[in-house]
């Protein structure tokens, strides 16, 4: 790893804390261990942390409650739940509530390391996706639409006004005038920027197939329709 990652372990099992902390330090992680959620929470609120391992059942609190409390001050840090055999369903519920995964006791140290690395990779991928989205948003920005033509300036101004409206827009113009670029810019500046921008070239599709391409079809709807197809 390029830099040492910090892991916070929270478990009232002192032996587990000690052995796991030693193993992770040998694998180039910085570890901070707590036997109670109260002390751990006080630390986590003020200290940057890369990943949290927490016991599903601690005195006076459970994993679901801990997840909700962590998300109040840290929405991104991955959380791994530590659970015993008898609480697997609750661990699954914890994953549904926002935990990245769960570790079932008893477990091998190698499994703990694998789950940690998997969670860290997930965070890295999310960061890369956010970076790519931001790059795309910066690329298709109204600030990048430069023109000397007064009429085009009016078009850009009108499109900026339409960005926040829930309306259907039709952009017309000759080939090569930048209709698709303008459409992408409007999309990236609007409330639906997190959704895909789909380009559909009707001129390149046979008119008999356009309906099927857009809306899909059922198996047997026409000759050659051998299976259901989503639009």
Textual characterization of the structure:
This protein is of the alpha/beta class and 231 residues long. The protein is 45% helix and 15% strand. It has a five-stranded parallel sheet with strand order 2-1-3-6-7, with helices on both faces. Strands 4-5 form a two-stranded antiparallel ribbon. A two-stranded antiparallel ribbon has the order 8-9. α1 links the parallel β1 (5-10) and β2 (29-34). 19% of the residues are buried. The mean pLDDT is 86.
Give the secondary structure arrangement, pairings included:
Layout: E1 5-10, H1 14-26, E2 29-34, H2 37-46, E3 51-55, E4 57-58, E5 61-62, H3 63-73, E6 79-83, H4 88-97, E7 101-104, H5 109-139, H6 150-162, H7 179-189, H8 210-215, E8 216-217, E9 229-230
Helix pairs in contact: 3-4
List keywords for this structure.
9 strands; 15% strand; single chain; alpha/beta; two-stranded antiparallel sheet
